[in-house]
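User: Can you model how pyridoxal-5'-phosphate sits in this protein?
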Amino acid sequence: MSVATRLLHSIPVDEQTGAIAVPIYQTSTYVQEAPGVNKGFDYARTGNPTRLALENLVATLEGGHAAYAFASGLAAIDAVVKLLSAGDQIVAIDDIYGGAFRLFEHVYRRLGIDIVYCDTTNAENVAKTITDKTKLIWLESPSNPTLKVSDIAAISAIAKAHNCLLCVDNTFASPILQRPIELGADLVVHSGTKYLGGHSDLIAGIAVAKTEELAKELKFIQNASGGILGPFDCFLTIRGIETLPLRIERTSTSALEVAKFLETRPEVARVYYPGLESHPNHEVAKKQQSGGFGGIIALALTEDTIEAATKLVTSTKYFKLAESLGGAKSLLCHPATMTHKSIPAPTRQASGVADGLVRLSIGLEDAADLIADLAQALDQLAAAKEEHVVTKEGELVVA
Ligand SMILES: *Cc1c(COP(=O)(O)O)cnc(C)c1O
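Assistant: Here's the modeled complex, given as structure tokens:
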């Protein structure tokens, strides 16, 4: 059975009414026959049927024992970090989502968890960085925003050898292209805000556990800390996931075309896209992803300045300037001043988030229209540069 068929038919039909759409159970509590005698639900922080349908769906897609839905991607990440104790250490990818970096550095470091970062694109770096305190390895693959690809199977073997957990933030690939648990990961997190929701109309997060034991711990944390996803947003996320295979297929095809076009432009010094042969870990991406390389591209401008990047991101018509990604409409952003501004400049630049780096989220528009939009914006950038040179020379003549 194909992923799309399995996905659509693992969403249950409502037993009571036959409703084909999952009902929104907008309730805080459930009437009990006697104390503790109920229909499987007692209080809606602990459990909600709409949320359960979403959680079961994502667990099936990722091949995990169970999944838990949270109010945001960061709340899901937060729940995973709460599996640790003071004195434990996380080894994390250096090119990490800015919000995860902020949570690790400004909340968990204060609470006694140590975090070290390394370039995980070479698995040996991970082995070298691990200490006897390391309890969790944190990967994003592909990473946000420079699309670094790490070998999940190789790093999972290292994690097992050192008795620590491996968690993969699978937001960029989605379970359609990559299933980290099948590659050996213990935990998977998603910002459901992105591809799972898919329409830029909600904030959500999911954490998936491979084993029953980890699932129990995560479930305990979800209930104890309470950062749950509300029933309406669970419904919207399920609805988004129904079209996930189609959207991922379309966006992956368009993104490869856009990435190839960008490689031809002199204004662009480097294109970051795992589907390009020029990507340093293209072979690893091919090995661990299937069905495409996703819809996110990053580009480094030849003129590596905040000014040039600002000019580009304000010159497009279809690509809207906004944080976030994975929606139906194409977006672009400037990580250095937007999504990754919470990372200090030297750390950010060392991990490849240069001043002239621009991130694109390829939407569901026609690829030719998106390419034409980028072409006219790059033309404007080139024209602005020429004008600048003329003015300078003019000034020189006057002087
Ligand atoms: C957006 C994002 C997050 C955070 O998710 P929110 O839903 O915004 O809290 C985490 N990881 C990655 C890779 C992201 O792109």
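A couple of observations from the model: The CA atoms of residues 82 and 101 lie 15 Å apart. The domain at 244-398 is CATH 3.90.1150.10 (Aspartate Aminotransferase, domain 1).
User: Helpful, thanks.
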